[in-house]
Amino acid sequence: MSRIQSVFAALAAQNKKGLIPFITAGDPAPELTVPIMHALVAGGADIIELGVPFSDPMAEGPVIQRACERALEYGVGIKDVLDYVYEFRKENTATPVVLMGYANPIERMGQQAFIHAAKEAGVDGTIVVDYPPEECEEFAQTMQANGMDPIFLLAPTSTDERIAQVAKVGSGFSYYVSLKGVTGAATINTEEVAQRIAAIRKHVKLPIGVGFGIRDAATAKAVASVSDAIVIGSRIIQELENTPREKAVEAVQSFISGIRKALDE
């Protein structure tokens, strides 16, 4: 059983919902990434989603695009991100870390080299936005053979065929994108999310995490009522943008603590 699977099993046993915060590696500064990761855990995160900076993050709204730009200005690349995970693992061997990003950096590194390096660093899974499940079965199988979970996105527009494909090749959890748009956009309709998740569960037996558009304790609590976990990212990046760097770690922990409290009520 992978670390991600163990976390969801423990959450289910406690009748709790998962909290999966997202940050972009290297933002607001490279030296803050690992301290912020620890702050997320201290605030109540169950799984950390660590964004790999990329020049053309097509699924991201303006907030995370800016975070990618700041990180890239520092020269942060995929090997640096793996180094952050390695550093994080020196103190924390329990909290799963999922890398979220795009195919280009992995392809440039080489899939096999990436999988080996990710395993060595202590990565638990990947969400590669532009890896469609039907085209990367070998990647998914190799990930799983190395104890890591390939996690795939599902959207409001996903067909039954695509959902079945994700059920076939994905593991760990499935990530449902609640909106027809980019991260940080619009307002979530919880009723629509509930209907789509019910349809997805006919095919997918994995836990389902929901992201895109979760902005505060109220939306987190509402979405968690119909899912297994919530993913929150753009709002955390905004918190970092609006906070002096010397207070960034404390601010992130405080914000996540508020979301954790809402989920546990």
Describe this structure in words.
The mean pLDDT is 93. Helix content is 48%, strand content 14%. The protein has a 9-stranded parallel β-sheet. By secondary structure, the chain is α/β, with parallel strands linked by helices. The chain has one domain: Aldolase class I (TIM Barrel).
Keyword list:
12 helices, alpha/beta, nine-stranded parallel beta sheet, 9 strands, TIM Barrel
On the 0 to 100 scale, the average pLDDT is 93
**Biggest sheet, spatial arrangement of strands:** 5-4-3-2-1-9-8-7-6
End-to-end separation: 29 Å
Return Rg in Å.
17 Å
The general outline is globular
The protein's oligomeric status is: single chain
Task: Look at the structure and name the CATH superfamily.
Answer: Aldolase class I
The number of strands is 9
CATH fold-level label: TIM Barrel
- DSSP helical segment count: 12
Please describe the topology of this protein:
Elements (H helix, E strand, L loop, with lengths): L2 H11 L4 E7 L8 H11 L4 E4 L10 H12 L4 H12 L7 E5 L1 H7 L1 H11 L3 E4 L8 H9 L3 E3 L1 E2 L5 H10 L4 E4 L12 H12 L6 E4 L5 H8 L4 E4 L1 H8 L6 H17 L1
Parallel strand pairs: 1-2, 1-9, 2-3, 3-4, 4-5, 6-7, 7-8, 8-9
Helix pairs in contact: 2-4, 2-12, 4-6, 5-6, 10-12
